[in-house]
Amino acid sequence: MTDKKAIISVNNLVKHYGEFKAVQGLSFEVYENEIFGLLGPNGAGKTTTLEIIETLREKTSGEVLVDGLNVDSDANAIKQIIGVQLQAAGYYPNLNLVELLELFAGLYGVNVTPMEMLAKVNLQDKAKAKYKELSGGQKQRFSIATTLINSPKIVFLDEPTTGLDPQARRNLWDLISEIRNNGTTVVITTHYMDEAEQLCDRVAFVEAGKIIALDTPDQLIDNLIAGGFERKKEVKAANLEDVFINLTGKAWRE
Amino acid sequence: MKDNIEDNKANSPLESLPMHRKAVGYNHTKATLALAKASFRSITRSPSAVIFTLAFPLIFIIVFGFIGGGGIKLDVAVAPGSDLQNPVIAALEKTGIIRLTKNDTQENIDKNLEKGAYDALISVEKNPNGLPAYFTNVKYTSASLTNGNVLKSVLNDLAHQLNTVNQKPTVTEIRATTITGRLHRTIDFILPGQLGFSLLSTGVFGTAFIFFALRQNLVIKRFFATPVRRSSIVLGEAIARIGFALLGALFIIIIGHFAFNFTLINGVVTVINMIVLATIGIIVFMGFGFVVSGLAKSESTIPPISNIITLPQFLLSGTFFSINAFPTWLQPISRALPLTYLNDAMRKVAFEGANLWDVKQQILIMVVWGIGIYAIAVKTFKWE
């Protein structure tokens, strides 16, 4: 991260649902070609913030620029340069993966070879399968494939690893890192701090509609330690997940 | 995986160039057609769509096609011990509307007369005293009075003919002639009704289910994250559903025509007129589907709401019986329903050879229904 050119800038973003203030003056920037994590408990306003940037939701006030385009005036231009994975989104019924990708290619107005898109997420074997028939990890990988169809500049992933087993989770981390390495900016939300620590270049902690911390995972940990924090339990050189992966192997289980 | 990464790296600078041009020239037609294609594929794989659009109507057509071939048939048992070699029996056999059963037992005949499975029992005996040559005894059954009355007039007619053989009429001779009309088969009534029913269920159930499912499973939300327009989503879905319904209609008409002699008075022109009517019908019925998808709170409430719309029309719009057969208090309700006018127009076009201008009144009423229902649909339809 030497250049640090902002590709998303959110300035004083506010979103009210009637009386409920979901987002209360958020400001942050996402740099080009980084994995940016939005972390925080349920209901903190992560998904709302993402959906406003994705032009899926109206904001109450504030300014959001995506690659220099304003969400108020250039929503359609923004849609063409972003890829969006929604939490718990389904797909058109009765179609197989290849047909779904053809549909999305049409929706984005691009020409892609569905099998190449499936190869990117290692789902070639499932080309003729229906989305419903996939395992949790496969579903998420397919969702990510649909976000890559329009060769987007930014990909948004809303809790992509929730409910996955450790192997599938690690596979997805690899995939997400690859996407970043290919020059795409990734914005991700997650509840898993180990995931954020390993995957994200920078993270923002959102609590009750406000950002309460924003930095690299390393720096945030260092800051905490510098403040005199100590873990109650003695830190071991490995954790239980390491044991799990070590015992069951890293191979894909699907 | 490694190879892919390098491939993409090599490609991405090249790919980013056309992408900016695309921002200007996004093709809404392409998006609409992609949706239409996806939806059409999905419909053809949906068991309920295929059953409602094709299977049910075809089953009804086949059933009515076979039973409705030759108008009324009378089942008459010939009593055991009856004389069989006489002009009365011979004449009865020649009428073509009477099925004589000659070798049944008395016990069986009595049972079936009670049930109305036989319409009457007949026995002919030679008159040993000369003239008249034969006595014909008929026993009718209260279980089948209508058919009994038909038989009565057939027998009177026959007796008169037989009795006047070789005799000059004393007072007058009635010289009746019948104009040879077009044979109106049951299929000519049933098929248009089934076509209407097929269009109604495809329009209402199909549209309601798919838009509810797309909304509920956030499929539409995911679509909204692409540059596609809302109008493209509705239009693409409509193209697929209309296309499927019309193919179904064409299939039903062709089967009806070639397998059951459904009358297409002006051939291909009639078929084209029927397809135009079917298009108007399916568009109106899809309006109901949009309303249902908006009103339904859960997937399980879609069938009851849809049935409230389709069942009364199915029963009251002249799908199976002419609405003239309904009691007078019911007829105004029948005459308020859009399917009544679609059925009516279809029959006029197919059997009477009417053109679309001749059925303008029916079309107008359907269009009024369409305007009304889409006005409601705009208010009730939910995207999210």
UniProtKB/TrEMBL annotation, chain A:
GO molecular function: ATP binding
Domain ABC transporter: 8-233
Key word Protein transport present: no
Domain of life: Bacteria
PROSITE patterns the record matches: ABC_TRANSPORTER_1 (PS00211), ABC_TRANSPORTER_2 (PS50893)
Key words of the record: ATP-binding, Nodulation, Nucleotide-binding, Transport
SMART domains given in the database record: AAA
UniProt key word Flavoprotein: no
Family named by the database record: Belongs to the ABC transporter superfamily.
Record-linked PANTHER family: ABC TRANSPORTER ATP-BINDING PROTEIN, ABC TRANSPORTER ATP-BINDING PROTEIN NATA
Name of the protein described by the UniProt record: ABC transporter ATP-binding protein
Organism: Pedobacter ureilyticus
From TrEMBL, chain B:
ABC transmembrane type-2 domain sequence ranges: 155-384
Keyword Transmembrane belongs to the record: yes
Annotated compartments: Cell membrane; Membrane
Transmembrane domains' residue ranges: 49-72, 195-214, 238-260, 272-296, 308-330, 363-381
Keywords linked to the UniProt accession: Cell membrane, Membrane, Transmembrane, Transmembrane helix, Transport
InterPro entries: ABC-2_transporter, ABC2_TM, ABC2_TM_bact-type, ABC_2_transport
Top-level taxon: Bacteria
Membrane topology annotation: Multi-pass membrane protein
Chief site of localization: membrane
PANTHER family reported in the protein's UniProt record: DOXORUBICIN RESISTANCE ABC TRANSPORTER PERMEASE PROTEIN DRRC-RELATED
Recorded family membership: Belongs to the ABC-2 integral membrane protein family.
Name the record gives this protein: Transport permease protein
Source organism of the structure: Pedobacter ureilyticus
Source species taxonomy: Bacteria, Pseudomonadati, Bacteroidota, Sphingobacteriia, Sphingobacteriales
